[in-house]
Design brief:
Layout lengths: L1 H17 L5 H9 L5 H8 L6 E3 L19 E8 L2 E8 L10 H17 L3 E7 L17 H13 L4 E10 L4 H4 L3 E5 L3 E3 L3 H8 L5 H5 L1 H6 L6 E3 L2 H12 L25 H4 L10 H5 L9 E3 L7 E8 L2 E8 L4 E4 L5 E4 L3 E2 L1 H16 L4 E7 L1 E2 L3 H5 L2 H13 L5 E10 H6 L9 E4 L4 E3 L3 H18 L6 H19 L1 H6 L5 E2 L5 H12 L16
Parallel strand pairs: 3-4, 4-5, 5-6, 5-7, 6-8, 11-15, 14-16, 15-17, 17-18, 17-19, 18-20
Antiparallel strand pairs: 1-2, 2-3, 9-10, 10-11, 12-13
Helix pairs in contact: 4-5, 13-15, 17-18
Length: about 525
């Protein structure tokens, strides 16, 4: 219990450090301009305690040669304005004047993609110096780079997703297109909106003009007509946004069933004492689920078959959900020849893959969102597994996950390795959200497995050349590989690269899933379900 609580405490401390942005001096500088910081703006914009931040670890440990970029210099997340859910994307001007690093663009695009998938109205609080020029080649050209932001603005508008932009500082060069492609444009006095600033204009065409005359709020409000609302300061601007949002109409509701939420019968805090990452002490995933599901009620599907994956129906936050979860307890299984065998917890066998594939298809047939709980080592290997058709069964599961049309939400509890990660709806399979506990581990294989494999390969390479590794050299190579893998399997490494949307406290798992389901409920459109060719 202490291990998990201590780990979560360290994560919270890191969160707090990241939330300081560019630090006290940069915050003081922002205040000196008469402007609020991005976090202060969000606090005034949303209903109290309604902001659910995403991507706080983006760029964590990256760009150290440039002084770092806490949270990638942009704050994203879902909040409520007069109880209506919105996606917020706010440049943090305390981090390199809000400049776009490569991960900044990717984080904005991830937030836009979440908004697109779930039809979440989006509000941009713009205060950015534009592209971080020393890294322009990694920011500018590709499909997940800066230009995609504007493409998404246009696509979201065509889809009928409301977008509001408030220019609350600098908005220059290509970045100037973002607010103008939104439904509403607000601008505070003292801000600037132009394709080229005064210095560049003078260099390019020899014209001398002040920033205010070139692209100030007064000019854009009265002369160019670009701005819909000119506001004297940040507070007035944020109050205006709240006033506009409060008058929005309502759209069609989604088909996902929801009843009045019921708290679990068992305390979430007990998760700390249930979860155990040690293979020597396997835990019962059903005990975790009992502390997440409404009323701790669970209708388990095929409980006596394919026991290393748990499938079943329940409710979370009132929403009907289908659960697909890895069971860490070892189980006894009888094969087609009547022989008993022990199946290892966290491993996907033929029977469990077939059960999960069928269950996933049933949930799509009956319009039930899917929640995946990962603690998976991978698929079973060996002669018996191959003879049982493990590849065919795994392919069925991957096919069903790939073609699912209901919302999919992924929670990485422990290990999430190899093809098991894919089959359990990893990032490549379009889950609406990916959450991870601080105990999550995320890679092709574990550090121990990778180190053992690579040492073996290295030994064989040297043996072919007539050389041998000493025991000391073997140990050194093993430890070196393991250190690298352990660092890269840490959830903070994945969250830094946006493979994970949010690292969550295990006792807040239910709240995080509920937030995600409430977002998914904003999109009423469900495509026709089909899986194509399945090997039987």
């Amino acid at each position: 219990m202490r291990f998990l609580a201590d780990l979560m405490s360290r994560v919270r401390n890191e969160d707090e450090k990241i939330c300081e942005g560019g630090g006290a001096k940069a915050i003081e500088n922002q205040h000196g301009k008469g402007r609020l910081t991005a976090r202060e703006r969000i606090e005034l914009l949303v209903d109290p305690k309604s902001f659910f931040e995403l991507g706080v670890y983006a760029a964590h440990g990256m760009y150290e040669e440039w002084g770092g970029a806490p949270a990638a210099g942009v704050i994203t997340g879902m909040g409520r304005i007069h109880t209506r859910m919105v996606m917020i994307i706010a440049n943090d001007a305390t981090v390199k004047a809000g400049a776009f690093f490569p991960m900044t663009a990717k984080k904005v695009i991830r937030a836009q993609n979440i908004a697109i998938e779930n039809r979440i109205p989006t509000i941009y609080l713009v205060d950015s110096a534009g592209v971080f020029l020393p890294l322009q080649e990694d920011v500018f050209p590709d499909t997940d780079d800066f230009g995609r932001v504007f493409r998404n603005n246009a696509v979201m508008s065509a889809m009928g997703i409301p977008q509001t932009a408030a220019i609350m500082g600098m908005c220059v060069a290509g970045g100037g297109y973002l607010p103008v492609m939104c439904d509403h444009v607000l601008m505070t006095d003292g801000s600037g909106l132009f394709l080229a600033g005064p210095a560049l204009v003078q260099a390019a065409i020899g014209q001398k003009v002040s920033a205010e005359d070139l692209g100030g709020a007064a000019m854009h409000s009265a002369i160019s007509g670009t701005v819909d609302f000119r506001e004297p300061d940040d507070q007035a601007c944020l109050a205006r946004i709240r006033s506009i949002v409060e008058k929005w109409g309502y759209r069609r509701q989604s088909p996902w069933d929801r009843k009045k939420p019921v708290e679990p019968a068992l305390a979430a805090e007990e998760i700390y004492g249930i979860y155990d990452s040690s293979p020597a002490r396997p835990y019962d995933m059903k005990e975790i689920l009992a502390r997440v599901l409404d009323g701790s009620r669970f209708d388990e599907y095929k409980p006596e078959y394919g026991k290393t994956i748990i499938c079943g129906y329940g409710r979370i936050g009132g929403f009907a959900v289908g659960i697909v979860a890895n069971q860490k307890l070892h189980a006894q299984q009888i094969d087609h020849e009547g022989k008993k065998r022990i199946e290892f917890g966290g491993v996907i066998y033929t029977e469990s893959a077939e059960k999960a594939a069928r269950f996933i298809m049933d949930c799509n047939q009956n319009l039930i969102p899917l929640i995946f709980f990962h603690d998976v080592n991978g698929f079973m290997v060996g002669r018996d597994a191959e003879w049982s058709g493990i590849i065919k069964a795994g392919a069925k599961m991957v096919n069903a996950v790939s073609n699912s049309v209901v919302p999919k939400i992924t929670v990485i509890v422990g290990g999430s390795f190899g093809a098991g990660h894919y089959a359990m709806c990893g990032k490549a399979f379009d889950p609406r959200f990916v959450f991870a506990w601080p105990t999550a581990r995320y890679a092709v294989m574990s550090g121990d497995s990778a180190a053992g494999t690579l040492v073996e390969i290295k030994m064989k390479q040297l043996e072919r050349g007539g050389k041998k590794l000493s025991e000391e050299e073997k140990k050194e190579l093993y430890e070196s590989v393991k250190r690298t893998y352990d660092e890269q399997t840490d959830p903070r490494y994945g969250a830094a690269r946006l493979w994970i949307d949010k690292i969550i406290d295990p006792i807040e798992t239910r709240d995080a899933i509920t937030q995600a389901l409430e977002a998914a409920a904003l999109n009423p459109d469900v495509a026709a379900f089909g899986v194509g060719v399945l090997q039987t």
